[in-house]
Structures are given as C-alpha cells and as structure tokens.
Design goal:
- By secondary structure, the chain is of the alpha/beta class.
- It folds into three domains: 5-185 and 439-450, Rossmann fold (3-Layer(aba) Sandwich), CATH 3.40.50; 189-235 and 323-434, Rossmann fold (3-Layer(aba) Sandwich), CATH 3.40.50.2000; 236-322.
- It has 19 helices and twelve strands.
- It has helices at 15-24, 33-43, 50-57, 70-79, 89-101, 120-123, 128-135, 166-174, 189-193, 215-226, 236-269, 274-282, 288-298, 324-327, 338-346, 366-373, 402-414, 416-433, 436-450; strands at residues 5-10, 61-66, 105-109, 141-146, 160-163, 180-181, 202-207, 230-232, 332-333, 348-353, 377-381, 397-399.
- The strands form two sheets. The protein has a six-stranded parallel beta sheet, with helices on both faces. A six-stranded parallel beta sheet has the order 9-8-7-10-11-12, with helices on both faces.
- The protein is globular, with a radius of gyration of 27 Å.
- The two termini are 16 Å apart.
- The model is unreliable at 301-312 (pLDDT under 50).
Amino acid sequence: MISYKIVRLSGSHYPSILEAIIGANLGFNKKTYREQLDCLLDYRALYSDSFSRSMQALGNQAKEIIWDLEITQKTWALENGVRFSSDNWILEILFAQIEKYRPDVVYFQGTELCAPGRFASTLGGGNIATILKERFPFIRLVAMFSGFPSLISRVRGVDLLFACTPAIVEHYRKAGINSVLCYHAFDEDVLLALKGKLETTYDVTFVGSTQAPGERYWMLSELIEHTPLKIWTDNRDENEARERYLQDVRKTVRQSARTKIRNQVRSILELVERRQIKRIAANRLAPAVLRNIVDEVLENKTAIESTGGNSELKIPRKLPRKNLAELYPERCESPVNGLDYFKVIGRSRVSLNKHTERSLGDVGNLRLFEATGMGSCLLTDYGRNIHHLFEPDTEIVMYRSVGEAIEKIGFLLENESAREAIAIAGQRKTLKSHTIWNRCQLINENLKARL
C-alpha cells in the first residue's frame, strides 16, 4: 500500500553538467524523456535517483523532476503534448508535470526555484511554493531542503522545512520559522557504479569551486605553494571576483570624492555667521544636499567625516592578475562532474574540505560525506557540530588554520597506516549513519507526521 505520492524538484544548476552528459551519451537528443533522465541520474551529477528509490523502498510512490534540464524537460513536454513558450518553459512544463503526476507532497531540493521574482512575468512577486498549493489543491504538503541560510522570502509557504546544519536551523528559528535538522548525505550506490574502492593515485586533492575572493580561495593558493595539493576547478569565481573588485573600487572612489567635497563645504560654513547660515537653510531653492549640511552645522554636528570612503563598504582583497590555473598549471585541472568527480575523490589519499562563510560556524556540506563515503581521508575545517557527525582524529582530521592544515597534510602523507585507518573509519561511519537512505527515513517520518 502506497503511503503517499511525492515529487522531488531538483536543479542541475550548471550548463557544464548537461554538456558532459551529452558528450558521454551518443545520440542523447534523440532519446526518450525516460532515457535522458536516466542518463543524468546514472551520471550522478549533484543528485541521483537515490532519493526516489529510497522513498519507494519506504512504501511511497516517488518521482524526480530536474526542472532546469532544458533538453530533457522539453522532451517530456513534446511526448505529453504540452505546449510551452520560449521564455517561460520552466514553469509551464513544471506545472504540466505536477498536474499529470498529482503528488501529495512536493519536495524542493533547495531554495533556488522559490526565489521571489524568478518568474515575475507569470507569478509577479509570488513564491512558487504558495502558488503550487493554490493552483493544485491535491497537493497536501510542500516540503523543502535548505542547504544554506536562505532569505526568508524563499521559504514562505513551505509546510515542512529541513535545514542541513544546526546553525541554519537557528537562522530560521530567529525569523520565527521552525525547521528540522537534516544533514546532506552520501549516495552509497556510487560505490557500486564505480565497482568498489579505487586505487589511490593522488596525495591530496580539492574538487570544487574556489569561492574567490573568499577564504577558501586564499587557502587553496597557499596550500598549493606548501603542499602537493592538486585542484579541479574552473576560473569563473576568480574572473567574477576581479570584476566585482573593480566595481567596488570605482564605487569607493566616487564616495570618497563626494565625502571630501562635503567636508570642505562644512569647513567653510563653520566660518560663516549663524545668521547667514539660517538664511541658507530657509532658502527652499538651495540644493537639498547643501541644506542638509547647513542643518548639521546649525545643530553643532561639526565632526568632519572621514575621507577614506564609505566605512560600510568592504573591498575584498585583490586577486592576482592570473588565475590559479595559469599560475600553477601542473596543479590545476578542469572541473569534473558526476562519476568523474567521485573517481578523483576515491583516488585521493587526502581530500581537502573548506566550508564557505555561509556555514555560520557549523560544518555539513556535501563534500564532508562524499569524501568519507568514497574512502578518502577527509581533512576539513573545524565546526562546532563536528562531534554530531564524526569523531575527529579517528574518523576524520580537522584543522583550524592554514598552518595547521599544512602540518596535518604532511603528517598524513608521511604516516600511511594512520591515514588509512582514519579513512576506513570515516567511510564506515558514513555508510552506517550518513547515507541518502538514512536521511530519507528521517524525511519520511516527518512527512508522515504532518500528512
């Protein structure tokens, strides 16, 4: 007996993923919708069908929709006689799929689709989670997974919210929204797809975005200089960071110039008789900026502003003119997705992990479970909640600074037996406690309690 019908809405998010799938599957465009979707799910880029298979094993009926996979979504529409426009195909096809599948539960794998204004021409400023329930009365519950502290406007209308770290749970609690702690997890079927453990060929690796100009970028740069670190990434973050840097510099220069002029005017007015200053203040034809400065002088607000620019505008550290791939061509490889991503991790003695600033002091990103699940020794940054997940120095290794990371990389590479013992223990913990099956059991219990 089926307990409920659930549809999970996931995004592929990166055009490179679709390009890789098409390249790996001859005649992809001519395949049926089911065949195309299977190619993506089998490739295991971001999300496989382990969620729906786990939900089915728990007695439910489950389907997967990759809402931004253009070729595949349009193939579904053509097979089902659904008409769509060129500028609003995502929403039109998605609504048709919801109408056909008629799920009891819609589960958003992330908050991206619910960004207000994303479909402004059709929905105005409405949140798609709310609109789905209004449009399709057969939907009994809308659930969502939040992997980072999102804007509250993205989670409005959601009946059951899952947050992937205690810090994110607290983020929503402060806004008056309850959420359930549900960490990311490892898809253990990857091991079956890769036919078990891979031979280690890399000493220490990092696979992912540099997050330039954030802390992760500068750490990677320093580790390349002092360790055998090899990274798989693209130049997108670095190029965008340089452009933002130039924009911030231009903005600061403009603000600094305006502040300097304002201070000069105030200095002059301080020398003028108050009677004359009051005349300026009473003159409605005087520019508003000048009248504001006059009011400040009359109220004895004579402190001169800093000419160093807007103190609230923080300019990030300037990146080198060349990208990491240009500075260290022998250490940098093009980004990898899907099974190729897992192959790199599985062949790594040590897998480096560094959370972004949005982690809010906790740990719990996907790489935490992917690296351990693949049997690599995880070296990750410290988080307050780490003891909820792994035992440091037994199942994983942690660092609190770049210097400590360099030191521990050296130790792990020089002490193979210790490194291997930690890697084995970490994998054992993940396969026992941090799989998609584990998380789906938690999700299922909470859904049933609300239905």
